[in-house]
């Protein structure tokens, strides 16, 4: 590590749980963030500030005025730009050392497969079930940990799915792909601005813990936040032995 890196990351290095070795792991890590909106903004900014060496951003959307209430990687001046480009500008302003790979596409499982393969950890920061299932299937196939978050209205959720852990379910164990779920989107339901910040920031925390290999992971647990009362609840998640996505063959 160079002198300016020792300074930049000094508050990580002085933590017993991270230290020089943990920070070296962060610098060498590659995170895949799918979705550069409300959740993806804080997730990308904290991974970048923490020094994650490579970040791949996936999003096909452009910055819209209605995004700015909560999508903090974007700015008024960048309305109309691709979200991956706008987010890359924000990342580089914060930490020019981070290598950003931008993928301005709506991705399916086939397109995700090589992106997931090259990542150490995957963050699902999307807002629709089809993409969530595609990300989950790609992560199960490549045996990569998936940090999944969502926020709508005053409700937030976060869980980690890691099928390298034999006890851990995958996203499809909880939300079967063939089941009909009501699609809820911020565009129609609204979302309290800090909810995406809270959840996206926690996704960054879980991703960094995985990279460093420290602490107790959120794997196999679903945390739910009611922002109205500011109360958390937690449920243990069980693997579905008949899950069509992660079932052992
Ligand atoms: Zn499963």
Q: Would you kindly provide a written description of the structure presented here, covering whatever features stand out?
A:
There is one protein chain. α4 packs parallel to α5 and α4 runs parallel beside α10. An 8-stranded mixed β-sheet has the order 3-2-1-4-5-6-7-8, sandwiched between helices. The chain is of the alpha/beta class and 249 residues long. The chain has a single domain, classed as NAD(P)-binding Rossmann-like Domain (Rossmann fold), CATH 3.40.50. The longest helix has 20 residues. A hairpin with a 2-residue loop joins β5 and β6. It is globular, with a radius of gyration of 17 Å.
Q: Strand sequence of the main sheet, in spatial order?
A: 3-2-1-4-5-6-7-8
Average pLDDT rating: 95
Q: What is the rounded Rg?
A: 17 Å
Shape: globular
Distance between the termini: 44 Å
CATH homologous superfamily heading:
NAD(P)-binding Rossmann-like Domain
Largest sheet: 8 strands, mixed
Report the uncertain regions: none
Give the structural class.
alpha/beta
CATH architecture: 3-Layer(aba) Sandwich
Any ligands, ions or cofactors bound here, and which? zinc ion
Which fold does the CATH topology refer to?
A: Rossmann fold
């Amino acid at each position: 590590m160079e002198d300016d890196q020792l300074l930049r990351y000094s508050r990580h290095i002085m933590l017993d749980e991270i230290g020089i070795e943990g920070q070296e792991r962060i610098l060498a890590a590659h995170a895949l963030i799918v979705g550069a909106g409300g959740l993806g903004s804080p997730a990308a900014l904290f991974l970048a500030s923490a020094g994650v060496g490579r970040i791949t951003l996936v999003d096909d959307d452009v910055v819209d005025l209605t995004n700015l209430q909560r999508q903090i990687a974007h700015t008024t001046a960048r309305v109309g730009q691709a979200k991956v480009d706008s987010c890359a500008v924000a990342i580089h302003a914060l930490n020019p050392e981070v290598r950003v790979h931008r993928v301005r596409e709506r991705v399916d499982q086939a397109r995700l497969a090589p992106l997931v393969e090259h990542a150490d950890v995957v963050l699902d920061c999307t807002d629709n079930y089809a993409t969530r299932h595609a990300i989950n299937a790609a992560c199960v196939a490549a045996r990569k940990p998936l940090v999944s978050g969502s926020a709508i209205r005053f409700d937030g959720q976060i869980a980690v799915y890691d099928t390298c852990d034999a006890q851990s379910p995958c996203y499809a164990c909880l939300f079967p792909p063939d089941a009909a779920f009501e699609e809820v989107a911020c565009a129609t339901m609204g979302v309290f601005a800090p909810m995406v910040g809270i959840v996206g920031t926690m996704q960054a925390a879980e991703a960094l813990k995985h990279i460093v290999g420290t602490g107790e992971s959120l794997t196999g647990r679903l945390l739910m936040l009611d922002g109205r009362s500011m109360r958390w609840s937690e449920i243990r998640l069980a693997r579905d032995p008949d899950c069509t996505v992660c079932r052992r063959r």
